[in-house]
Design brief:
The protein has 272 residues and is α/β, with parallel strands linked by helices. Helix content is 42%, strand content 17%. The strands form two sheets. A seven-stranded mixed β-sheet has the order 6-2-1-7-8-10-9. Strands 3-5-4 form a three-stranded antiparallel β-sheet. The longest helix is centred in the first third of the chain and has 18 residues.
Length: 272
């Protein structure tokens, strides 16, 4: 296993933070070395300095995607932090539906990983509106920095064991079997999610309209407080009055640093 020097680690960590917001503390040095050692071996690099030069020079973007995938954890599953989805279905959707004048519902799943979160939202929306869904523009925008996880998400195919938390009638209504081990979401649900590659550290957010709901869960755990709060300010500006921000249960916002109003653990609202 290649060892990383203090200088090499700082060079790599500074680059990642400046471009992707991810803050690698000094104690992460061993973790980074372990997760990247096989990449260096595959590419026949003898030092992390060589690897860094390769990442920076790569114009395809593949090298940085691999790097980000290695140092972060794309761990997600259907109905993760289920109380959020219950609140979304029982409180948020009825409230937004009754307040809407043009049957337009804009929801953003930021840091969507392999698609379980946005697809869960799409199923909740479909179930809530029922036959009236055809009158609504309620597609979910789902973004992530990783092309790898977005490719998985677009396919909408998952191992059956990963569907354990999904209600049985959802499995019957929204999934089709792919052999004995996998199931795929029906086109009706897959078509309700729009996937795009997007870096939350981009200076400009290219959205023409504001969102009624933003889900950004278990993403900001990788950011330092300033990076996190700068992003939250952008979210606030992109939230419709009366709209919501959902973050991960392992995350929190300092109420003195944000204009969002605290509603529940990890649930915030922009007051109308």
């Amino acid at each position: 296993m290649q060892k990383i020097s203090v200088k090499e680690f700082k060079q790599l960590a500074d680059y990642i933070k400046a471009n992707y917001g991810i803050y690698l503390k000094d104690e992460k040095q061993t973790l980074v070395t372990g997760r990247l050692s096989n990449v260096l071996a595959e590419k026949n690099f003898t030092t992390f300095a060589e690897y860094f030069d390769y990442v920076v020079a790569d114009k395809t973007g593949d090298a940085i995607v691999t790097l980000i995938d290695k140092i972060t954890t794309n761990h997600t599953f259907f109905m993760r932090e289920v109380d959020h989805f219950n609140y979304f279905k029982e409180k948020v959707l009825p409230q937004l539906a009754s307040a809407s004048k043009d049957k337009d519902l804009r929801i953003w799943s930021a840091g969507c990983s392999s698609g379980e979160e946005p697809y869960t939202l799409a199923m909740l929306i479909d179930e809530f509106f029922g036959a009236d869904k055809k009158w609504w523009d309620a597609k979910v925008l789902a973004t992530d920095i990783s092309s790898k996880v977005l490719d998985i998400a677009v396919q909408g195919s998952y191992n059956n064991e990963g569907l354990a938390m999904i209600p049985a009638y959802w499995k019957l209504s929204y999934f089709e079997k792919l052999g004995n081990e996998k199931s795929v979401l029906i086109p009706k649900i897959r078509n309700e999610v729009i996937y795009r590659k997007f870096n939350l550290m981009d200076k400009t957010f290219p959205f023409k309209k504001k969102f009624h709901v933003i889900f950004c869960r278990n993403v900001m755990i990788y950011f330092d407080n300033k990076t996190k709060m700068d992003l939250v300010k952008k979210f606030y500006e992109l939230t419709e009055p009366g709209g919501y921000l959902f973050i991960g249960h392992s995350e929190s916002l300092n109420r003195n640093e944000t204009d969002y109003k605290y509603i529940l653990p990890a649930v915030y609202r922009k007051e109308a």
